[in-house]
Structures are given as structure tokens and as C-alpha cells.
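Milestone M4 deliverable, item 7.
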Amino acid sequence: MEKDVLSQVIDVEKEIQKDLDSEKVKAREWLEAAKRQEEQSFLVEQQRIQQSLDQSLAEAVKQAGEKAERIVHQAELAAERLGHLNAEVLGSIVERRISRILPG
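Output delivered:
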């Protein structure tokens, strides 16, 4: 009878060990699946951020180009206006500006 009880205890211990081993395998598989899923989520988010950065950069370049075009256009208009002034008017403007800079 003692042998039967001992044998049953050993069988139960073996069963418990099998269950533990099986749970370890399941936990490892679940952990690997979760890791793969998080890596995929990370890559998707990284790609989304990169696209957003690319769009922001393209918009900034576009705005800078437009601003540069406006500045150049304004400079061309100013140059054209100055080009129509005669020497007497230009001399007068230069003299007034120089008098502000030079002492006395």
C-alpha cells in the first residue's frame, strides 16, 4: 500500500512537472509573440514619425522658397524704382544719409 501511495505521489509530481514545463513553453511563446508585436508597432510608429518629419521639412522648404521669392521680388522692384531716379535726386539722397552718419 505504501508503494502505491508513493507511486501515486511520484506520478502526480511528474504530471505537475510536465504542466510546469508546458506553461513555461507557453509563456515563452507568448512573450516572443508580444515582443514581435511590439517591435512591429515600434516600426510602424517610427515610419509614421519619419513621414511626418518629411512632410514638415517639405513644407518648411516650400515656405522658405516662397519667402525668398517675395524678398527677391521686392528687391527687384526697389532696384527698378532706384534705377529711374536721376543723378541729382540720388545725390541728394546720398548726401542726406551721409550727413546722418558723419559728425558735424
